[in-house]
Amino acid sequence: MLDDQQPKILGGRFVIERRLGRGGMATVYLARDQRLNRQVAIKILHNQFASDDQFLRRFKHEADSAARLNHPNIVRVYDVGNEGNLQYIVMEYIEGADLKEIIALEGPLPVNRTIRLVQQIAEALEVAHQAGMVHRDVKPQNVLVDRNDQVHLGDFGIAKSDRSSAYTDPGTTFGTADYLAPEQAQGLGATPRSDVYSLGVVTYEMLTGRLPFTGDTPLAVAMQHVQSAPPPPRQFNPAIPPQLETIVLRALSKDPEQRPASARQFAELLRTYRERGDQPTMAVPAQPHPAQSQPYRTPSQPDAPTVINPDTYDAYGNQAQASRPARPSQPRRQPLNVPPPLAQDTPDGPPKRRSGGCGMFVLAFLLLIGIAGLLYVALFTDLIPQVQQLFGGSGNTAAQPTATTPPGEPTPTVELVAAPNLIGLTENEALSLIQQQGFREFRNPPRTDQAPRATVIEQAIAPDTLVPKGSVITFTLSLGPEQVELPDLTRQSFDSAAGQLAVLGLQVRKVEEPSTAIQQGFVIRQNPNPQLKVDKGSTVELVVSLGDVIRFPGVIGLSREQAVALIRENPDLILDVVDEQGPDQIPNFDQVQPNQVVSATANGQPVENGFFVPRGSRIVLGVRRP
């Protein structure tokens, strides 16, 4: 290990200045890059791990993983090398503090600041996920916050990459117990939604100043992630808005299918909340009662989303029983006043009668009801068997009408036939089938449905039920899915446009391309076009500007002479320097031809063949030393 009191130069260019921190695997130092005259952070693997092949693979895997990612919210990796028995990674130096320190000193953090920081972390994770990588160790200690409150996600040491088979074996658990997704705790494969869960725990901690689960051992904490419902955050910080609490609880769902589908979607939910935070409720997966908690369920057994009010949870995370309204007090019953017997005739004549107007009105009203009932029976006698079938019948036998047959005449018989199956038929098909089988039709008012327009979605009598021939078959037609009109999203930021589409119930597909006219991150065009009506739930494609960028030519792997010629022929690129590198900077030095290009940077950031780089970028080519 390096002596903090003695400056040392690594790779012939990095001068160690002081130690920044020490972790379980490595120590991080502040250093100065003499060649580019900038401060960098250098992570040096501890000596006891330098001879361990597994740790060396993990250490180099971190460098390879992070070097593939180019985003302002991800710590950049500049170089990797070794000197003697020292293995090191050269990274971007972030002047600030890690998020864990900030939470410890300032937590709970204000809602607006929490959302702003979490959105940045989510954007960084989305970039990693799009590159085929799962971080698997999202926690505040791995999030650096600079003096401008900008987030930088680092430590991809156990990231699962689609370019490496290391650390992907099922049954092996990686990560930190406090932030571990249920599927990770059970040794199942980690997915991008596992990172979303961990980010949900980080958000919970930022808002409350505490973790959702604690225990005496990491195993005890991990089992709570698998089995226990998290206490509602507002239990510890009533200042958290209920809608924001709902979003956090959704990210902490045990079933990955119930969480936001991606880190980007999690960020969009937070962004939409900030823009439309007055919505009354939001849908989140129902959380099991702690005493009835179930093990993690696979995506083939999803829990149905439930609209809940976060305020109904008690202090232990259980959903409280709704209090019954107080029963109104009943007035004391007064003794029943019994009217006196009717007065008898007197010698002076019969007694005076009270007015009978009210009684006549009641009698007339009852008479009208009776007439209406007779008319109803006369007009709709053919519906009686169906009503008996639906409410009083048993099996598939329709009840017979109870009409009285005159003496001497044969008892009439009712022909029973099976009701047709109309579900899924078009309106014309349904009417044709009803007429062919001797039924009559009655249509309920149509309603919106996901079924195609003018198709049958419901019928009053179940198919194959035996009913009298000629009965009325009642059915309902679909108006088709609910439609929404597309707003004009061009020249808006992608985040704003995606948020508007989410509010309208539409999905978003992002496509990026260069543009000299539209600012980076803003929508160039959309498909379908504005003002068109589309079905709710359909997908809208947004073509988003990458800014004034060009593709980096395929110089990596070419000879020095060929690469230099390609760069100089391109008027939009500037060749800065050709950096000759030795075995301390190229791990597979002996397998590379002399003067072969092995790496490149554009404006100090690593690039690969085909990457987009800003027009006018200064290029540094790394070649094997002759």
Describe the fold and architecture:
The chain is elongated and about 110 Å long. Helix content is 26%, strand content 22%. Among the domains are: 1-93, Phosphorylase Kinase, domain 1, CATH 3.30.200; 96-277, Transferase(Phosphotransferase), domain 1; 483-545, Trypsin Inhibitor V, Chain A; 549-624, Trypsin Inhibitor V, Chain A (2-Layer Sandwich). A hairpin with a 3-residue loop joins strand 1 and strand 2. Helix 4 packs antiparallel against helix 6, helix 4 packs antiparallel against helix 9 and helix 8 runs antiparallel to helix 9. The strands form ten sheets. A six-stranded antiparallel sheet has the order 1-2-3-4-6-5. The chain has a four-stranded mixed sheet with strand order 25-29-26-27, covered by helices on one side. A three-stranded antiparallel sheet has the order 7-9-10. With 626 residues, the protein is of the alpha+beta class. The protein is built from 14 helices and 29 strands.
Secondary structure: elements and pairs:
Blueprint: E1 9-10, E2 14-22, E3 26-33, E4 38-45, H1 47-50, H2 53-67, E5 77-83, E6 86-92, E7 96-98, H3 99-106, H4 111-130, E8 133-134, E9 143-146, E10 151-153, E11 160-161, H5 182-185, H6 192-208, H7 218-227, H8 242-251, H9 263-275, E12 283-285, E13 305-307, H10 357-379, H11 384-391, E14 416-418, H12 427-436, E15 440-443, E16 456-459, E17 466-468, E18 472-477, E19 483-485, H13 494-503, E20 507-513, E21 523-527, E22 533-535, E23 539-545, E24 549-551, H14 560-569, E25 573-581, E26 597-602, E27 605-606, E28 612-614, E29 617-624
Parallel strand pairs: 15-18, 20-23, 25-29
Antiparallel strand pairs: 1-2, 2-3, 3-4, 4-6, 5-6, 7-9, 8-11, 9-10, 12-13, 14-17, 16-18, 19-22, 21-23, 24-28, 26-27, 26-29
